[in-house]
Amino acid sequence: MANSIPVRWRREVLKKDGEQRIRYAALEILEVTGIAVRSEKAQKLLGAVGCVVDKKSAVVKFPPSLVEEMAKKNDRSVTFYGRTRKNDARLDFEHVHVCSDGNGTEAMDFDTRERRSSRKEDVAKSAFVADALKGHGINWPNVTSQNVPQGTRHIHDLQATLENTEKHVTLATDTTVWEVQDVVELAAAAVGGKEELRKRPIISSIHTSSSPLQIEGEGLDAGLVAADAGLPICFYVMPGPGSTGPVTLAGSVAIGVAEALAGNTIFQLHRPGTAYVFSCGIANMDMRTATRAGGGPEHGLTSAAYSQMAHMFGFPALVGGFVSTSKWPDQQAAYEKFASAVTPILAGADMIAGIGLLEDCRTVWLEQLVIDSEMSQIIGRMAQGIEVNDETLAVDVVNKVGVGKDYLGQRHTMNHFKTEHFIPVITDRSSWDTWVAKGSKSLIQRAGEEVKRIFKEHTVEPVRSEVSETATRLVQKRTKA
Amino acid sequence: MADAVARLKEAVMNYEMETIADLAKQALKDGVDPLVAIEKGLAEGIKTVGEKFGRGEIFLPELVMGAEAMKAALAVLEPAVPKGKHRSTAGKVLIGTVQDDIHEIGKNLVSTMLASNGFEVVDLGVNVSGSDFLKKADEQKANIVAMSALMTTTMPRMAEVITPLKKKSKAVKVMVGGAPVTDTYAKEIGADGYSGDASSAVEVAKRLVR
């Protein structure tokens, strides 16, 4: 299975009572205020099963029983398939899969050290580097291609990603029906046809609500087409506590759950058994700067709570983590990313979005991917906790080694050190003198060396040639139109 | 015969510390020259292991187990080496933890690293008195005396050995190490070399015997 973190040391942020209160709050919001659903197709589906639909405002009020019935129709054994089988990510509610994150618009150029608008080559390079990382399991393209003609970004993003990773690709640049059709065609080219893609969807599609309590029609209709092609749907909600959601975390989580449940109701009515993933990035607004406080302590808490709510209803969860508002891979980046990742990972979130970006999910740094992967493995070790059994207690070995001797030459040490201990890639634990002798390198420099090593040594299994042919054809079609 | 030697090399590289002694015995029974078995088998094997460790491909437990395997086979092969013949080494190192100090993991690792890089290592153990260091250095005709101290209170013991040792012989080199020891301190007390960790100790030792 793909790189993933088994969660043995699970820490739940909500008590049972809290879970139930958020559940009923979400159902009450859906029943009393409802949600604007700006899609005629969806309104028809909802009206037919007893929802109250106000045509003028597009507001739909949902009966709680319908919402809960539809929650049971979700596919509960979803696999996010990789292009190669070893990269399959099974969402079994016991493992965390760390994704790269997600549609940034800027890149810190690895060679020129210039911060600039993101290009197709950044999509390709970040996918390639992430493919090599042990702390990473699923690829959400870090950035989007902005140096390509209008209306072709989704094609270029997917092509560059498919060509540079064997891992599952989750996409957010397919926000219209025709864009979804393009990415389905392109992904199908990578696996040998649309039926193959339906059996082993190697891509999934991210769609969003617009908090508070709105679902736009174009994006939703696009999502329904993606579901028809058999792609798993990640329905992303982002209420900001204090801005687009109640300032209190419980209230914003409740609004997010309400939006996700409404989305699921529509998807299951449209296509029962759709693989639907509760997804969120709930970070408050900073009350001084009016910017999003991504990576703040609240962000990790809401991600953990939302995962717990998703699991209560039987859905896997994709939530924010490893986020930082810092502009540089510095100490602020380290503590914000760690804080926002550790909480949802210990809560058992199925997927975390994710690694590689700074400036609140805006700017990709290849070094940051490597640093975040390290962090992912550190937290991964924490989540595995301490296993206690005869083998790990090792009393036999203690009695054999006796007093005053060491354990380095024991077979027991050899058998367990790689799984029992986190093995650093870029963390420097050498002495001062050795560190100086090796050039007094900073963390960013060491991460940069690892990036260079990956470019030199890593390989990705080539994708079918149909991918490039299909991409060229689709780009031509969309450029003419 | 070449097969038996290659098999010994492989056994060190595969960390077969529990079973390598039997291989060594069988090799002797089959008439393999013990000196060849040591130099072309064990020494080559541990050299490969040491190189892999240096490149960060394998980890300490693997290095130590490789060394344990080598030791287990040496215990069988060395007594069979004809009198007057000696295996060629990179140099002879006398090593120990100084008096009043019983910490030895760091010292053991340095021993392992040196042994895996072709040095012959005589380990005096822990709590080694100054007079023992001096006596053994003379007896063993060591090229290098290596001392370890893990406490600020036992560090000065190293200086107590260096002064008389250097008076006695200009040729013998001294290297020191241990958590509280620094390069500056090493120079202050007249040591020829210092290393902050086991891996770089090899480079220091190689430089000192050059």
Question: SSE layout and pairings?
Answer:
The complex is a heterodimer of chains A (481) and B (210).
Chain A: E1 5-6, H1 16-32, E2 35-37, H2 40-48, E3 52-53, E4 59-61, H3 64-71, E5 79-80, E6 89-90, E7 95-100, E8 106-108, E9 115-117, H4 120-131, E10 138-139, H5 153-162, E11 168-171, H6 177-191, H7 194-199, E12 203-208, E13 214-215, H8 217-228, E14 233-237, H9 249-270, E15 276-280, H10 297-313, E16 317-320, H11 331-346, E17 351-355, E18 357-358, E19 363-364, H12 366-384, H13 390-393, H14 395-401, H15 411-420, H16 432-437, H17 443-457, H18 465-480
Parallel strand pairs in A: 2-13, 7-17, 8-19, 10-11, 11-12, 12-14, 14-15, 15-16, 16-17
Antiparallel strand pairs in A: 1-7, 2-4, 3-4, 5-6, 8-9, 18-19
Helix pairs in contact in A: 1-9, 3-9, 4-5, 4-12, 5-6, 5-18, 6-8, 6-18, 9-10, 10-11, 11-12, 12-17
Chain B: H1 2-13, H2 20-29, H3 34-54, H4 60-77, E1 91-97, H5 105-115, E2 119-123, H6 130-140, E3 144-148, H7 156-168, E4 173-177, H8 183-188, E5 193-194, H9 198-209
Parallel strand pairs in B: 1-2, 1-3, 3-4, 4-5
Query: Mean pLDDT of chain A, nearest integer?
Result: 96
Q: Flag low-confidence runs of chain A.
A: none
CATH domain fold name of the largest domain in chain B: Rossmann fold
Strand content of chain B: 5-15%
Distance between the termini of chain A: 41 Å
Q: Largest interface, by Cβ-Cβ below 8 angstroms: which chains and how many residues each?
A: A-B, 17 and 24 residues
| Largest beta sheet: strand ordering of chain B | 2-1-3-4-5
Strand order within the widest beta sheet of chain A: 1-7-17-16-15-14-12-11-10
Category by helix and strand content of chain A: alpha/beta
Main beta sheet strand tally, sense and closure of chain A: 9 strands, mixed
In the CATH hierarchy, what is the class of the largest domain in chain A?
Alpha Beta
How many DSSP helices of chain B?
A: 9
